[in-house]
Design brief:
Blueprint: E1 9-12, H1 22-49, H2 56-73, H3 76-84, E2 89-91, H4 92-125, H5 127-133, H6 136-162, E3 170-171, H7 178-183, H8 192-225, H9 227-260, H10 267-292, H11 294-311
Parallel strand pairs: 1-3
Antiparallel strand pairs: 1-2
Helix pairs in contact: 1-2, 1-3, 1-10, 2-4, 2-10, 4-5, 4-6, 4-8, 4-9, 6-8, 8-9, 9-10, 10-11
């Protein structure tokens, strides 16, 4: 048991330079978190309650929003408490749990985006076989794949990290991240297994990215030939593409900075880079899909009209 860490808590030092505007930051963060909750829960409830939306594309969208709630709940409540506290400490177990939630959230997002791309590929490029292939059983399998695969892979990452002996407890970020915890390991700690599993994880999700690129190449080639397919592409694929680009840019910025970035950047900029994938995609995704997908937009407009009719009866 000599390789097990004796560190029982961590200090999140990313908030050290926010003393003068902590109340403003708390208000903005609370507002942002409330917006994320309202937008995502509203979209989830619309899809669940409307039987006309019980189609694969909308089921995947529902899991996408649920994952957004899962990831942001792993960060925002703790961050809001830290803004109200003078001590920015997190327990060892809590830090590992948050690191697991952050990584699994990001990987689940990419898995769901890959599954959604495949669904659009079948719907547009193989329309005659779509309903024969996308059965309820296959739909369940794809949803399980998008959730269970990241959870299993990231569990092994966290288990390996928990075996490391750490020589520091200072994390210069707003949240716990597995790679940062591994970098706190003592010089004599064996991190070879951690690095191997990390590279396997990167390979798997880079493969997801190439799969998405492959599906969109086929989608674009198919849509160029047909006016109807172009309309379907613009209606259902553009929101997915915008979500994908937003998420990938936000995540790549964070990963590249974490691995190769300079510590000379202002702490506030470092903080924004660290949390932008928890800020921008969870707010944008329900808005993009809500306004772009006709069935959801009509459902929202119908609810608004119904509420107005109740409030102002003729």
């Amino acid at each position: 048991m000599d390789n097990v860490s004796t560190v029982r808590s961590f200090i999140l030092s990313g908030l050290n330079e926010t003393t003068n505007y902590r109340l403003t930051l708390f208000t903005f963060t609370l507002l942002c978190y409330c917006v994320i909750l309202v937008f995502n829960i509203a979209l989830i409830m619309i899809i669940i309650l409307d039987e006309n939306l019980h189609e694969p594309m909308y089921i995947f969208l529902c899991t996408f929003c649920i994952n957004g709630l899962y990831g942001t709940t792993g960060f925002y409540p703790k961050f809001l408490l830290d803004l109200l506290s003078s001590s920015h400490e997190i327990s060892y177990e809590g830090c590992l749990l948050q690191a697991f939630v952050m990584y699994s959230f990001a990987c689940c997002d990419l898995s769901i985006l890959a599954v959604m791309a495949y669904d659009r590929y079948l719907a547009i490029c193989r329309p005659l076989h779509y309903h024969a292939f996308m059965t309820k059983k296959r739909l369940s399998q794809l949803v399980c794949f998008s959730w269970l695969t990241p959870l299993c892979i990231l569990s092994s990452n966290i288990v390996l990290t928990s075996r490391l002996k750490l020589c520091s407890r200072n994390i210069r970020k707003l949240l716990c991240v597995n790679w940062i915890i591994v970098k706190l390991a003592c010089p004599d700690a064996d991190t070879f297994s951690n690095n191997v599993v990390a590279y396997i994880t990167i390979f798997i999700y880079v493969s997801h990215g190439f799969f998405i690129i492959w599906t969109y190449m086929h989608l674009i080639i198919t849509c160029v030939r047909s006016k109807d397919d172009r309309a379907k592409f613009m209606q259902t694929c553009v929101p997915h593409l915008v979500s994908l680009i937003t998420f990938v840019i936000a995540l790549v910025f964070d990963v590249m900075y974490m691995r190769f970035g300079s510590t000379d950047l202002p702490q506030s900029l470092q903080n924004f880079i660290a949390i932008e994938f928890l800020l921008i995609p969870p707010v944008m995704n329900p808005l993009i899909y809500g306004f772009k997908l006709t069935k959801i937009r009509n459902r929202i407009l119908g609810l608004v009209y119904f509420e107005r009719k109740l409030a102002f009866p003729s």
